[in-house]
Amino acid sequence: MSTNSDWDIIDFHTHIRPPGSEPLSLPGVQFSDSERAAQQSRFRRLVDVDGLVRESEENGIRLRILSATIEGFFGTTGPTDIDRIRRVNDFLAETQRAHAGKFLGLATIDAFSGEVGAREVERAVLELNLAGIVIDSSRDQRYPGDAVARPALEAAAALKVPVFIHPVGAPCSEQLSRNGGVPAYALGRGFVNGLALLSVLRSGVMEELPDLHVIFTALGSGALWVAAEETAAFPREKDLIGARPNIYFDIMGFHPATIRYLVDFLGAGRVVTGSDWPICRPLSRTALAAAFESAGLNPEQQQLVAEGNVRRLLSLRAA
């Protein structure tokens, strides 16, 4: 198959932290010395905005969508500080302005803070001009389908901005990492991200808010299989995924089998490129084009996944 790479790359899943941020410890997670050194190296890159600009230019990435998750500042339990959250969003807005055309920011939102979170969605989008929001998959073992998250989701839907639902550590992270190392810890994050999807499906929020667009990560894509099996087991139920066209997944890297799986389940119009920078392997035009070819994507599908779907999501508010 000949790959037509006449497309730009928009990386929807790029992390960043304000300068002076401190690494968040992961209680109970067992890292080897080499793993801990790699983690520290990744954190140094998280606070190096100029380095990210250079790396993006060198690898042919046209636009990166930046996010800084609640978990990264406050962990997965306990209260959050709205003043600190506002400062993070101010930093994201400043970075977006300083590097116009290269970066757009997703507002950091504690979706589980009720109306407080909703008001910050409005401030971040209307006053700071951020392009969307990022929320955690879970906090204090509550999920986005919970009523407490509804005000933030309603605010995002009213403003027609995308909602990135990002993985967080599982409550059993210590047992996972003890038995399976860092890969098992990541598996737990995928479980929580998948459970967040199932909570959204069960809650009815997608039907109630037709302008709500949510993006999950490939790490949680096992929930797609579960949802499909649920439909097969209870055929009177409507298709759990297909009936909700505003649910998207990022590819979280560029593994051909993952890309094929997501496109087969969702259609190319609901899959976006996301690298999980700086956690996963560096994304480049060459690597992504090769992955698309191996996954069997035709030129139209490649364009949608590489940039087209994110451009559509970003244009909804303007429209």
Task: Give the tags.
8 strands; globular; alpha/beta; TIM Barrel
SS strand fraction: 5-15%
CATH architecture: Alpha-Beta Barrel
**Into which percent range does the helicity of residues fall?**
40-55%
- Find the CATH superfamily: Metal-dependent hydrolases
Low-confidence stretches: none
Strand order of the largest sheet: 1-2-3-4-5-6-7-8
Rg estimate, integer Å? 18 Å
Q: Can you write the helix and strand succession as a string?
A: EHHEHHEHEHEHHEHEHEHH
- Taking the alpha carbons of the first and last residues, their distance comes to 37 Å
Mean pLDDT: 91
How many helix segments? 12
Task: Enter the CATH topology name.
Answer: TIM Barrel
Rough outline: globular
How many strands, what sense, and barrel or not for the largest sheet? Answer: 8 strands, parallel
Task: Find the structural class using helix and strand composition.
Answer: alpha/beta
Number of strands: 8
| CATH class descriptor | Alpha Beta
Task: Provide an overview of this structure.
The protein has 319 residues and is α/β, with parallel strands linked by helices. It has a single domain, classed as TIM Barrel (Alpha-Beta Barrel), CATH 3.20.20.140. The protein has helices at residues 33-46, 49-58, 70-74, 82-98, 115-127, 150-159, 173-203, 205-208, 222-233, 256-266, 285-295, 299-315; strands spanning 10-15, 63-67, 103-108, 132-136, 163-166, 214-217, 247-250, 271-272. The protein has an 8-stranded parallel beta sheet with strand order 1-2-3-4-5-6-7-8, sandwiched between helices. Strand 7, helix 10 (256-266) and strand 8 (271-272) form a beta-alpha-beta unit. Helix 10 crosses helix 11 (285-295). It is globular. The model has no long low-confidence stretch (mean pLDDT 91).
